[in-house]
Each structure stands twice: as structure tokens, then as C-alpha cells.
Fold this sequence. Notes:
CATH architecture of the domain at 3-113: 3-Layer(aba) Sandwich
CATH class of the domain at 3-113: Alpha Beta
Oligomer: single chain
CATH superfamily of the domain at 3-113: NAD(P)-binding Rossmann-like Domain
Helix content: 55-70%
Largest sheet: 2 strands, parallel
Strand order of the largest sheet: 1-2
Number of helices: 9
Amino acid sequence: MSAAALRKALSTCAAFLQPGAFTAIAVRSTVLPGTMAALVVPLLTALANTSDWAACHWPSFARERLAVEDEHSPRLICIGSDGDERLRTVLDPVFASLGAEPLWTHFATAEFIKHGSNLFNATKISYFNALNAWASAAGVDGRVVATSVALAAEGAWNPSYGTKIGAAFGGACLPKDLEALLGYLRSGELPFARFVEAVKAVNDSFGRVL
């Protein structure tokens, strides 16, 4: 959501705030880390004629084509706030009706969770497109490769795989096989070798597990 659109929406919200009636304001659009603390709360504070409100970041993880179903059966409810307990009074009954236990956290954490989710999806799409390009250059059917990788690679079917923060990259296969593939891509001057270089650089920065 652009800053201009967000400012306009917040201005509209502020106009409806009334003293004596607490209002929970939930920003559901994707916003950059720091937006809630640096823009949303200060702007509402300046515009509102009451303090009977609190803002939170409640990012939506709904898929575009299945938004209604996903909103009624969310895989994750994440609420970023400044700790104002009045928000729980209003929102907890809503979450209870959805049968979900919300993750209450800080503004920036919720903002990062949303962007991290989108980036993960974008990275996965980029990976399989790059894999298809490499396979096609070798005369291989990239669709067969992609379908099989999705079944074989643990990271594709185990939700917790690779989520350990720190030196999780190691073992007998991953480092040497990544090096071998990178050499193959470079020697053949194949596209998107920088994708693998970036993967290597990130993992090397954390060290390796033997």
C-alpha cells in the first residue's frame, strides 16, 4: 500500500473517531517495516480528536483467488501492536469465532512476517523458473524436473525444514552440490547463475554445519 493511499485511509478513519467509544483500527495492507510506528500512529494521533482508539497491523495472508475462504479459515493470524490491551477486548472475540489462536507481537515483527511471506513465495517462483531455464538449456523437460523436485526436496514438503536460524547449511551434500551446480552454470554461461551465487553467499555468511 502506498504511503499516499495509507494517509488518505487514515484520515478517513480519524474523522469517524468519537470520544467515549473505543475503536480498534486494523491496517491489513502490506506495509514496510517501521510504517506503523513512524506513520500510522503519529498521523492518527495528530488527526484524531480523541484518545479512545488503538491501531494494530493485522496483515492478510489470503490468496487473491480464495480470499473469502482464507479469511474464514486463516493459517495464521498475526497482530502487531504497541501493547494496548484494549485491542484484545475488541479483537479476541473475532479471532475466537474463526477458531484461531492469534500471534500477538510488535508492529515491526508483524510487518516483517508479511513481507517475509511474500518474499518466500516470490523466491520459490523465481527458483522454479530458473530451474526450468537450466533444464531447458540441457534439453530437459523443466516441468518434469520441477514436479519431481517438489516431491523429492525436503524443503518443499517439510514446513519446518530450513527454518532454523543460523548455521543450518551443511552436511555431506548441500555445500558440495551447490558448488558443483554453480560451477556448471558458470562454465555453460547459463542464465540466473547469480541466483545460486546469492544463495551461497547468504549461507556462507552463517558458517556451515558438518
